[in-house]
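for the writeup, i need someone to sanity check this before i put it in the appendix. the sequnce is what the collaborator sent (i think, or maybe the updated version? ugh). structure was predicted straight from it, no edits. if anything looks off just tell me and ill rerun, i have time this weekend
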Amino acid sequence: SESCRYYHKCGQRAEYRKRSKEIIDIWNTTKFNVLKYNKGGQDRGFVLGPVDEIMQSLDDNAMNLQSMSASRFVGPFLENVQSWEKKLSHISEVVEVWMVVQRKWMYLEGIFIGGDIRHQLPEEAKKFDLIDKAFKKIMNDNSQNDGRFWMLVM
């Protein structure tokens, strides 16, 4: 009957409102684990800790949003759902690149901090020093942002 369809539609919309609010709440409180990084007994700044759980949460939330956006009942929430789909996709991409950069920085740091390589490859050492300074600044800023680096990228 018409009233059943109306109540079903209202129920679905209420469910989507609830689910989208839950996703937003998750990302308003999600913190990344920022760890002190020491190498050879020396304080080398900060690094991003394991991100497996966060990446799983990103995937789960993205799937939920995708499911909602495909529904005919999403109507008044479509713009918000699509906006959050883009945000979560952006966060995911940034985290993936961030981890690649961090791994490369840690590898190169082992080569260029101290040792004879600096003397053998002075131009490359200068380039690394610039990258090292920039990476440390970004990670220090992130540590001061209470591990909510995603807020910096949105």
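The longest strand covers residues 42-48. The longest helix spans residues 78-112.
thx in advance!!
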